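Title: Comparing notes on inverse folding

I've been comparing how different people in this forum approach sequence design from structure. To keep things fair, I'm posting one structure and asking everyone to reply with a full sequence. Here's the target:
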């Protein structure tokens, strides 16, 4: 069963500042960086596994998702260590082993109840296979996302910060060691469809959620997407989802608000104020996604990637929150959570709908709850907390044990 402590650990990246010894045009948060990194990792996974058998593709996706989570949780503990110092520690096996023992000891009370996931995490950090495809994809995605942030702060710091030149040179030097990864060169090449997609994803960190209600922390759309993805993955493990379904739920959560880079984050009360407004927004989103994302990908021969992202967004079944499977190359909707459980097999490529929607609402609840607990509240936040809490408790997905989980937040 998922516990409050795990949700709060995932959410804690919303507080962690990046580049906090540099002048920044906007606050750069760890949760946003992790979201951008995993979006890039998803693209690289797809491009580097197209020719693999289905089971190998599923296994590689699992390793990338979990490796990304293992590194994220590790990063939450060592956040105060600057990267150059961390890399020096990592170069010394004894010192790195001591640091890792400390990190795992801090994480154990929260992570150990996850059983096999915790065991895989310990193995990841204590017996690393540095040259595996999984680690290379994650390392390249990490470098790209960090470089993207660096380019935001570089012009402001260059006049007086003597570290800027060295930092700037380090990114291309290290990224050049991953030139064998399919898709990475296109992501780095201005003007390509993958370059524009990577930029669109990164820009979602500029869109702050709940703009009518000041909050601490003020989560972005990008960070929210990562939180939903994490929740969806752990709930998938909790309900014994097949691995393809768990992977799809993570990536669905990670992409589910991508259209908001085109429409901005529109809060639910506004969406519901006019009966036809949700349909108008959906039609605009679909049109702009096709024009700015999917058509350029297809034009450059990346049709299968476009189709994959469309699957996560539920384009063929009307919503990202509709259960679906892909059988013999044909996508079809499935009738609810129980219907999907009856088709819980890797070869059907299943993807949840209601479960991901619950994770979306649970992330929103945590955003409102955390701000209120931090002393920043408003009538809008208080109303949202009650509305979200009520809706979650009325969920028909009893196997998620939401009542027990939410009781800890009272």
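Reply #1:
Here's my take.
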């Amino acid at each position: 069963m998922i516990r409050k402590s795990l949700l709060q650990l995932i959410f804690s990246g919303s507080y962690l500042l990046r580049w906090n010894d540099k002048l920044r045009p906007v606050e750069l948060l760890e949760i946003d960086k992790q979201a951008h990194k995993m979006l890039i990792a998803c693209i690289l996974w797809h491009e580097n596994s197209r020719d693999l058998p289905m089971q190998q593709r599923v296994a590689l996706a699992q390793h990338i998702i979990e490796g990304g989570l293992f590194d994220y949780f590790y990063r939450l503990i060592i956040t105060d260590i600057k990267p150059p110092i961390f890399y020096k520690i990592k170069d010394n096996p004894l010192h790195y082993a001591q640091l890792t023992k400390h990190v795992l000891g801090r994480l154990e009370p929260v992570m150990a109840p996850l059983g096999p996931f915790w065991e895989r995490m310990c193995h990841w950090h204590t017996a690393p296979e540095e040259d595996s495809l999984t680690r290379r994809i994650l390392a390249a995605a990490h470098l790209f996302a960090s470089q993207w942030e660096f380019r935001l702060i570089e012009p402001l710091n260059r006049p007086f910060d003597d570290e800027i030149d060295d930092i700037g040179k380090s990114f291309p030097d290290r990224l050049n060691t991953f030139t064998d990864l399919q898709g990475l060169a296109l992501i780095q090449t201005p003007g390509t469809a993958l370059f524009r997609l990577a930029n669109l994803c990164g820009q979602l960190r500029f869109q702050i959620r709940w703009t009518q209600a000041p909050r601490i922390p003020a989560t972005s759309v990008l960070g929210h997407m990562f939180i939903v993805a994490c929740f969806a993955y752990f709930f998938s493990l909790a309900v014994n989802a097949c691995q393809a379904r768990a992977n799809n739920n993570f990536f669905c959560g990670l992409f589910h608000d991508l259209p908001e880079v085109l429409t901005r984050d529109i809060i639910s009360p506004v969406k519901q104020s006019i009966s036809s407004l949700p349909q108008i927004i959906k039609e605009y989103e679909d049109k702009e996604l096709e024009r700015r994302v999917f058509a350029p990908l297809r034009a450059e021969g990346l049709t299968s990637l476009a189709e994959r992202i469309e699957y996560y967004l539920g384009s063929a079944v009307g919503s990202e929150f509709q259960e679906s499977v892909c059988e013999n190359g044909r996508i079809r909707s499935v009738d609810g959570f129980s219907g999907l459980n009856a088709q819980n097999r890797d070869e059907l490529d299943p993807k949840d709908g209601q479960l991901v929607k619950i994770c979306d609402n649970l992330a929103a609840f945590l955003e409102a709850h955390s701000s209120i607990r931090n002393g920043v509240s408003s009538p809008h936040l208080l109303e949202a907390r009650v509305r979200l809490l009520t809706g979650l408790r009325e969920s028909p997905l009893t196997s998620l044990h939401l009542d027990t989980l939410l009781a800890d937040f009272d």
